[in-house]
Amino acid sequence: MSTAKRPVNLDLSSIQFPLPALVSISHRVSGILLFIGLIFLMWAFQVSLSSPAGFDTVREAMAHGFFAKLVLWGLLSALGFHLVAGVRHLVMDMGHGETLEGGQRGSQLTIIISALLVIMAGVWVW
Predict the structure, then answer these.
(1) CATH number of 18-125: 3.20.20.300, 1.20.1300.10, 3.10.450.40, 3.40.190.150?
(2) Phi and psi of 49, rounded to 5°?
(3) Which residues of 16-29 are buried (b: 16+ CB within 10 A; e: fewer)?
(4) Are 33 and 80 in contact (CB under 8 A)?
């Protein structure tokens, strides 16, 4: 049995996470948001297919509803980030960017590309 001193109660809010860790955690969060957002999208799809009036309701909400546009923009933003961060993970799984410097650069590139995709999604939706 080891008698090494280990932290008993680790306070995660006091730890400064490096950028690659934050990008990895955000990748998981965006996946959860996409999963939850699919409920909204499936509901809107079901309503739009239920009748011509339902289709008009969904179309009107997407054309003029602030909340619907905000949700759509959020889901597209989460999808863009999740896609870029997923590609980053796949590239790292192939052995590229596994060093500390490579992980940092890959995370920076992920944030830059994702920010561009978020802006493009916002322009497209609004």
Answers:
(1) 1.20.1300.10
(2) -90, -10
(3) eeeebeebbebbee
(4) no
Question: Contact, 78 vs 27, CB < 8 A?
Answer: no
Residue 78's H or E segment, with its range, is: helix 66-93
Please state the pTM of the whole predicted model: 0.84
Q: For 12-42, what is each residue's pLDDT tens digit?
A: 778 889 999 999 999 999 999 999 999 999 9
pLDDT digits (tens, 9 = 90+) for 113-123: 999 999 999 99
82 is in an annotated binding site: yes
